[in-house]
Amino acid sequence: MKKFLPFFLILSSFVLSLRAQNAHDIKINFKGNKDTCMYLVKYTWDQQYIVDTCKKIKNGLVEFKGKRNLDKGVYTLVSQGKAIYFDFFVNESQKFSIQTDFSDVVNSLKSPENKENENFFAYIKFITNKNQEFGKIREQAKGKSKADSIKFVTEKFKVLNEEVKKFDSDFMQKVKGTFVYDVLNLKTEKEAVNVPKASNGRPDSVYQYYYYKGHYFDGIDFKDDRIIRTPFFDDRLKKYFETVIVQHPDTVINEIDKLISRCAKDSLIYNTLVVYFTFKYEQSKIMGFDKVFVHMADKYIISGASKKLGYTEETISKIKERVDILRNLLLDAKVSELYMIDTTYGKQVMKMGFDTCKTSKSVTNLYYKNLEKLTPMFRTLYQVNAKYTVLVFWASDCGHCQTEIPKLQDNLKELKGKIDYKVFSVQTKDDFEAWRKFIIEKKLDFINVFDPVHLNNLKERFDIYSTPVIYILDKDKKIKAKRLSADQVIDMLKMLDAIDKKNNK
After folding, report:
1. Cβ(172)–Cβ(184) under 8 Å?
2. Furthest-apart CA pair in the chain: how many Å?
3. Cα–Cα distances in Å, from 47 out to 50, 83, 169?
4. pLDDT 10s digits, 354-392
5. I need a surface site. Which of 126, 233, 266, 498 has the fewest CB within 10 A?
6. CATH 2.60.220 fits 3-113, yes or no
7. CATH 3.90.1150.10 fits 339-503, yes or no
8. Residue 275, exposed/middle/buried by CB under 10 A (0-12, 13-18, 19+)?
9. Alpha carbon 82 to chain centroid distance?
């Protein structure tokens, strides 16, 4: 069941649509029902919203009446205990009646003056009854031997499946061109028929995949906002992006753009998809998929391409700030230089008084005053001469770092002499003595550096909101992997090195 929200919650502005100043009047004669209150609930994307309430129910007669037209789409009747009774359509006709009986809700559903609902009810009656038949077959198979049971169930299921397929095909042909067709088409899988054989004599799975992918959205009108107010649209779209297409950021970006181009600009569907994909990939934990977020923000939000997303100028400004950080940290982006002080010179630097400075101006003055002494103490990232640089940001007072950093040191011993790597280990806090003590105690054989003169805005430049943060850079200091755990670093270095050797054969 989809997430159910209280009636006082409303859609945020990006999914609101204008309602015609008209009226709706839906009467439901629910024989035998004892509810004293019922809700009219609308599907929208992956949520459900109460749009009307009937608090006076007498003899099972439920009426939802209002001075405005309802948004066109699929609605559901919900009990006071929040149990879902049945779905039905609200479309051009906003005044109609439905009849049903509590003793057999589905099979007694009728709506004589509403053809859409009559057709839909006929469909769900057939499917519900066939599902019950499937259940009975399983019961009938009990007590038989395993072999007889499998044979019995297989034969019966085959017959029922054929009946369902034929009914579904005939029904869809009958209602083609209607909203009922559009809704049921959202859950219809487009499987290839007459599949050619592959060289091994079996059905060609590659052909099947490309047919399925190519026809996945057949018959779906992305300019019709009604389809977003159904129980099937969000599931269909999410399945495509999570299980059908190749999980690579460039592929995802291409598919998103193709899909959004099929929507009417600034429509309910257009804006919902923009917001959904932007949020989804901003939150993604899969390495590299922040590229999708950057693309979405650049193309659809920061550019002002859509005027009705509901974002305030302040929100857009914050999104832009976030994107400006991330775009420089995408996979294969070349990181900028880091000018750090080698920890071995730490005591000398601390005597210069940088830790006592109270303002940026005093730090700057002290820096230029000691520039000649400081210059030979610098260790820069681009001075690291190795095929791979493991760039690590951490702090000695971070509990997670206290576990991960020694583990990283131990794990990397496995690769000594096998892969050309060096570790550029960067302190993110100002407590030099604690940092130095930890390095000595744990015998960290890294290039350990810190920034007492505050030349580098580390947290913003490298998106450090918690530690440790681990990047792997290639010889040109391009990001090949990021936000790894200590355990992942070894496997990633092995994989990158194997790919490089293969490409250079």
Report:
1. yes
2. 93
3. 10, 16, 30
4. 777 777 788 788 888 888 888 888 899 999 999 999 999
5. 498
6. no
7. no
8. buried
9. 28
